[in-house]
UniProtKB/TrEMBL annotation:
Compartments in which it is found: Cytoplasm
Gene Ontology BP annotations: trans-translation; trans-translation-dependent protein tagging
Record bears the keyword Zinc: no
Name the UniProt record assigns to this protein: SsrA-binding protein
Length: 158
C-alpha cells in the first residue's frame, strides 16, 4: 500500500463540525493579521475556530469574529486579547465574491481551519456555506453510515 503524502503545512485549528452544519461551497485561503504573541501562541497549537465566523464590514474588509487564540504565557504584559476581532487578508475579487454570497444568496462565511503554510505564514481556510436543516443533517448521517456498512460488506466478501 502506498504511503500517504504528508502535507507541507501544519494544521493548528480545525473546524470539523462545519461540514456537518453547513453545505460548503467555494473555499478561499486568506492571510491573518496577527500580533507577535498571537503567532507564538498559534505555534503551540491551542487555537479554536469552532464557534467563530467571518463577515464583510462596511469598509470592505473581511473580519474574523470569536476565534479563540489563547494568551502566550511568556509574553506577560505584552499579551493580546484571546477573542479579539482579526482582519483577514484577501484579494479584492475574493472579497466581492464573499460579499455577494452573503448579501444575495444568504450564505455564511465559515472558517474551516487555521494552519501554517510551507513558508511558515499563518493562513485560514474559509468557505461560503449555507446552513443545513435538521433533516439534511440526518440524510448526510444516513448516507455516511450506509457507505461505511457497504465498504465493510465489500471488504468481507473479498
Amino acid at each position: 500500500m502506498a504511503e500517504k503524502e504528508k502535507p507541507n503545512f501544519k494544521i493548528v485549528a480545525d473546524n470539523r463540525r462545519a461540514r456537518y452544519d453547513y453545505e460548503l461551497g467555494e473555499t478561499f485561503e486568506a492571510g491573518l493579521m496577527l500580533t507577535g504573541t498571537e503567532v507564538k501562541s498559534l505555534r503551540t497549537g491551542k487555537a479554536t475556530v469552532a464557534e467563530s465566523y467571518a463577515a464583510v464590514d462596511r469598509n470592505g474588509a473581511v473580519i474574523l469574529y470569536n476565534a479563540n487564540i489563547p494568551e502566550y504565557l511568556q509574553a506577560n504584559r505584552f499579551n493580546h486579547e484571546p477573542k479579539r476581532d482579526r482582519k483577514l487578508l484577501l484579494h479584492a475579487k475574493e472579497i466581492v465574491k464573499l460579499a455577494r454570497g452573503v448579501e444575495r444568496e444568504g450564505m455564511t462565511i465559515v472558517p474551516l481551519r487555521i494552519y501554517f503554510n510551507e513558508k511558515g505564514r499563518a493562513k485560514i481556510a474559509i468557505a461560503l456555506g449555507r446552513g443545513k436543516k435538521l433533516h439534511d443533517k440526518r440524510e448526510t448521517e444516513k448516507a455516511r453510515d450506509w457507505n461505511r456498512d457497504k465498504s465493510r460488506l465489500m471488504r468481507d466478501r473479498g
